[in-house]
Amino acid sequence: MLDEAIKGDFLENTWDESMLSSVEGKLARYLKSSASSARNLREQKAKIEALVADISHQTKTPIANILLYAQLLEEQNIPEETKPLVTSLIGQSEKLKMLIDALVKTSRLETGIFQFQPKNSEIKPMLTEAVKQYLPKAQKKQITLNLEPTDAEAVFDSKWTAEAVGNLLDNAIKYTPSGGAVSVDVSEYDMFCRIDVSDNGRGIQEEEQAKVFQRFYRSPSVADAEGVGIGLYLTRQIITGQGGYIKLTSKPGEGSTFSIFLPGE
Predict the structure, then answer these.
(1) What radius of gyration, in Å, describes the C-alpha atoms of the chain?
(2) What are the pLDDT digits (tens) for 103-117?
(3) How far from 252 is each of 208, 221, 257, CA to CA, in Å?
(4) Stated pTM of the model
(5) CA-CA distance, 148 to 56, in Å (whole number)?
(6) Which of the four, 30, 66, 73, 113, has the lowest number of CB atoms within 10 Å?
(7) Mean pLDDT value across residues 76-103
(8) What is residue 4's three-state secondary structure?
(9) End-to-end alpha-carbon separation of the chain, Å?
């Protein structure tokens, strides 16, 4: 009966008052309930997918327009006391855009709408592109951003893993003071490959290290810094979704190292 149930062909075929018949009847009712739950779950996922698509589509244009008009207003001859308000408007609009983009990505990952497509690839091109994207931000803050040479390979989805690494670089640059350094190193092992994003910034208190990967968590010590507290959560979702994991080591005042572990060949 269990073998038939596993194949999805289970039917009640014994109709007597024996213990076996009773078990068979209960198993049938359980399987029908499970099938109904699975069907409801598929329907809910479809609704969420449609909702996420609608949110992404309906908010993209208004936010882009708000940013455009605010930037045009900033270029006008406006009173000096008004300029900080326009700057704040631009900053908040960019924050809203970033938040919606992150929530859409997170929803797609959590509901299984998006499926990763990992394949065996060289890590260097992906890391080079990620570092290149954040180099201007590091230079603006006079932070040294260095990628160590590597010829390592791993099994990963290049697009999404680059986003995960980008989130780590963004955080490292954000919380490292001017004149500091951020480095990206790769270590290759038999069963996995490790990517370390290290900085010599403020570091993270031990009691907070388990919390930083929670959605919307922001340490009181960085409450005045930009961000919405979803980048590290999204990073963990991306890495674990590919069969890897992420680890943090940090000492207050000495910096932090976020280590991404990806499956090997």
Answers:
(1) 25
(2) 777 777 766 667 788
(3) 11, 11, 12
(4) 0.68
(5) 37
(6) 30
(7) 84
(8) helix
(9) 40
DSSP-assigned letters across all residues of 28-94: HHHHHHHHHHHHHHHHHHHHHHHHHHHHHHHHHHHHHHHHHHHHHHHTS---TTTHHHHHHHHHHHH
- Find residue 198's DSSP bridge partners: 183, 257
Percent share of the chain, pLDDT over 90: 34
DSSP state of 207: G
- Report residue 156 as tokens: 């990963």
CB burial of residue 235 (10 Å; 0-12, 13-18, 19+): buried
Mean pLDDT for all residues in the chain: 83
For residues 182 and 225, the model is more confident at 182
Q: Quote the pLDDT of residue 185.
A: 94
> Distance between CA atoms of 261 and 126, rounded to whole angstroms?
15
Whole-number pLDDT of residue 12:
58
| Other beta carbons less than 10 A from residue 108's beta carbon | 18
**Helix, strand counts (H, E) of the chain:** 6, 7
* Own/partner pairs, 138-141, CB within 8 angstroms, 24+ separation: 138/173, 138/182, 141/173, 141/176, 141/178
Quick one: 239 exposed, middle or buried, by C-beta within 10 A (0-12, 13-18, 19+)?
buried
